[in-house]
Amino acid sequence: MAVAVITAVALTGALPSSIRPESRWFLGLIGLVLLVLIIADPGRIDRSTRLVRVLSRLLLVLLATSSALATALLIHLLIVGGDLTHSATRLLLSGAAVWVSNDIVFGLIYWEVDGGGSVARALHPPEYPDLAFPQQMNPHLASAGWRPMFVDYLYLGFTNALAFSPTDVMPLVPWAKITMGIQSLISLAILGLVVARAVNILH
User: Fold this and answer.
1) Which of 72, 74, 119, 193 falls between 20 and 30 A from 183, CA-CA?
2) What is the pLDDT of residue 146?
């Protein structure tokens, strides 16, 4: 999870200034929260303290805010035009960075909210999951006691963004269906507008 967060921060920091809404101190704040979170719970996911829960939610809010603002600025730039829209290469690279950042953020949302969060799932697996993975729907596909790890939620984020719909993981509760629907719409807007604009520039 830490690698995914660092990747999202790095991608945001590498964006052109026209679609990078936050200043450097904002990225520094995200890095600081992540560092404290790693120190407070260094990868074992067994510390269900108030500090860890607050830091996890704060990190998620900061990343989601950064990703949402970058997406909004990119779409606005594609509609009204700007320096970035004169280069197909820069536009495609910037669009890809925003798209990947969004997928990471949504993967973190699924990871943090499903079943009450990663710690809750590890300590007290829910009887009825919010997101149904194939291994949960068919126990013969995995060993006893299987539970999804972060990479499973990250994979869900990327496949939902590419297919614009659920693939192997089924949303069973309203928040999951709404979140996956929002992600699909955002992904469709980014991919559709960026590709269309790039093709127009090339012609």
Assistant:
1) 119
2) 81
The pLDDT tens digits for 25-49 are: 666 777 777 777 666 665 544 455 6
Residue 137: its pLDDT value, please?
81
Among residues 189, 15, 191, 194, the alpha carbon closest in space to that of 88 is found at 194
Query: Once rounded to an integer, what is the mean pLDDT over residues 94-99?
Result: 89
pTM for the structure as a whole: 0.84
Percent over 90 (pLDDT), the chain? 19
Whole-number Å distance between alpha carbons of 87 and 202: 9
Q: pLDDT for 145-176, tens place per residue?
A: 788 888 999 999 999 999 888 888 999 999 99
Distance CA 92, CA 100 (A): 12
Q: Other CB atoms closer than 10 Å to residue 184's CB: what's the count?
A: 18
Residue type, 54: V
